[in-house]
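Hi,

Apologies if this is the wrong queue. I'm a grad student, and the batch job for Serpentine Receptor, class J from Caenorhabditis elegans produced an output file that my downstream script rejects. I'm not sure whether the problem is my script or the file. Here is the sequence I used:
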Amino acid sequence: MFVNWAHYLVPKISFFLSLVFNPVFVYLIHSSKHVLFGNYRYLSYFFAIFNLCASAADLLIPVAVFYYRYTFVTLVVDAMRSEQGEASIAFRCSFISGTYGILNIHFIFRYLSLKSNNIIKNYFMPYGLLLSVIYVLFHMSIWAMIDYFCLHSAPEMRDYIRIPFRKLHNESIDNINFVAGLFSEASPDIVQRSWAGIVLLTMIASYSMILYFVLGYKIITGLHIESVTMSQQTAQMQKQLFKALTIQTIIPICVSFMPCSFSFYGAAFNIGFMNWVYWVSAVAVSMFPFLDPLAIILLLPALRRRSPRASTSPRLRLEKYNDLGCDVMIKYLQIKF
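Support response: The file is valid. Your script probably expects a header line. Output copied below for reference.
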């Protein structure tokens, strides 16, 4: 099923960019000479692997979002209806929750590095890394189960959207795999499980957002207190690290939390968003896997100066030598990341 050219091309371009930036990010972290990233190095490898898996899932299971009155529908674009179709959609959507889990770990790691660095040094490898992987998989599993058990399709849903779906896409909804929420003008069972589904999914996203702001505030407070005893170079380095984390927080809010919220509650309250809002939501989610490593590369001078562009830029080559002292300081601090 063809939605539009943007919906067709953007996930493929995102996959290609993810295939470029994540290996580059891993290479820059792994081959760093002046900067000792410590245990964050291994966490970065896990983040990159997750991003590549998310991009592959988006390429292999391309999804679109359709809206009509009190229902939103997340459907597979390039596949015929099958018994495993809804499970594959739930698996694909679970990577949305995985991005929340990844960022949760990032904040927790940064907070512990600032407040209890001995825990990171002594216990992160292998226990912390293993717990991080389990935590992200748990996040994904919960989201997938909610999708599968609360938002699975039903004949009543197909009847509800049959005519408008055919008018918009010239396709029969009977041939499409989808998960959906129908919040009114339906049987009580469907309405109840639809509301239960989006409330549970919203709780997962909301607790993550609260965690970002709470730990972010604690990190800012900790940096302010400790900056009294920090050198100017160290304080500047810590500000750069927190700036990178801030951008990493904004990215999933823009490409995951907001699109999902528009999809869920636009249909739940029949707000009447145009359908382009919904297909933009599906496209935006596919952009996180390459924006995440790109943000770190661009915002951390220790990585930016070693990027391919830096080797051809006189200004950046000069910056590399001027900031060498900062690199040495990071190594000394065991990169409190």
